[in-house]
Design a protein that fits this description.
Blueprint (H helix, E strand, L loop, with lengths): L4 H28 L1 E9 L2 E9 L3 H14 L4 H12 L5 H19 L7 E4 L5 H16 L6 E2 L11 H11 L5 E6 L1 H5 L1 H13 L3 E5 L5 H4 L8 E3 L3 H14 L6 H15 L1
Parallel strand pairs: 3-4, 3-5, 5-6, 6-7
Antiparallel strand pairs: 1-2
Helix pairs in contact: 1-2, 1-4, 1-6, 1-8, 2-3, 3-4, 5-10, 5-11, 10-11
Length: about 270
């Protein structure tokens, strides 16, 4: 078991950096790079030539960052990328095509495995209220498909070493649209949960923080920014969550059903 949260920060940063930088390069190339076909007539013979449009310092800066991020993991690819960048002016079509191929290859290799849309970090000891939150709030209330939610406690899935936790992070945290941290006294007492929290914060993608009943907000301390924490039974906070997810996933707006499910959840939780 990885006990040092710094190890998880390293794992999540190392996994994010190459893919995220490569993906930014790919998006920039797709959005800004184009080819212009030129016809050159010489002695009544038509020749075809191409210009590359859109290569600028911004792309060069992105590619420099990509090169730096892959030097240790993919030294040969890093060398090929650098060579294409240096020789770009000598043969723009060939070199930009090579650069594009390298970028697309890195995106494919480093892309996180497909996982769930919503990741829920919680203690297994809080199973009852967490299960009710998933059923009443997310599924029946908002309309999220149960198959799109990862809600198995990390304490229950026998993660014992660095490879296991790397796979857990890759499959279930990096790919999530939203991550929910359901904080309780049980959560804070679990070293495993705290490590998982570190991975979620390091990924920093739409993190939502909720305090379970009987959790003292003052006891959370260094765990997180308590100003961003909402009580899981707070009507206003739950209504904001409903509106946000309903708009994000383009789900049908059925506020009457939502209100009923929300009240059932709150009444069962207090």
């Amino acid at each position: 078991m990885i006990k040092d949260s710094a190890n998880i920060y390293y794992i999540i940063f190392y996994m994010r950096s190459i893919y995220s930088i490569a993906n930014k390069c790919k998006e920039y190339i797709d959005d800004n790079i184009s080819f212009r076909k030129n016809k050159i007539i010489h002695d009544r013979v038509i020749f075809t030539d191409y210009d590359v449009i859109g290569c600028d310092q911004q792309l060069e800066s992105l590619l420099d960052g990509l090169h730096e991020s892959i030097r240790s993991k993919y030294p040969d690819i890093a060398d090929s990328l650098k060579e294409s960048m240096k020789l770009y002016d000598n043969d723009k079509i060939v070199r930009i095509s090579a650069i594009k191929s390298i970028v697309e290859c890195l995106c494919a290799v480093e892309k996180p495995l497909s996982g769930k849309r919503i990741f829920i970090s919680h203690s297994s000891k809080d199973f009852k209220i967490v299960s009710d939150f998933v059923d009443r709030i997310l599924c029946l209330g908002i309309g999220i498909n149960r198959n799109d939610i990862f809600c198995t406690s990390i304490e229950d899935i026998a993660i014992r070493n660095g490879n296991d936790i790397r796979l857990h992070i890759q499959e279930n945290i990096l790919s999530a649209d939203y991550s929910f941290l359901l904080i309780s006294n049980n959560y804070k007492a679990s070293e495993i949960c705290l490590n998982e929290m570190g991975a979620v914060w390091a990924n920093d993608a739409n993190v939502r923080l909720y305090l379970l009943p009987e959790t003292n907000i003052n006891s959370i301390g260094w765990l997180c920014d308590t100003r961003k924490a909402n009580k899981i039974t707070d009507t206003v906070a739950l209504d904001m969550l409903y509106k946000e997810l309903q708009e994000y996933y383009s789900l049908p707006d059925n506020f009457a059903n939502w209100s009923m499910q929300r009240e059932l959840f709150i009444n069962r939780s207090v």
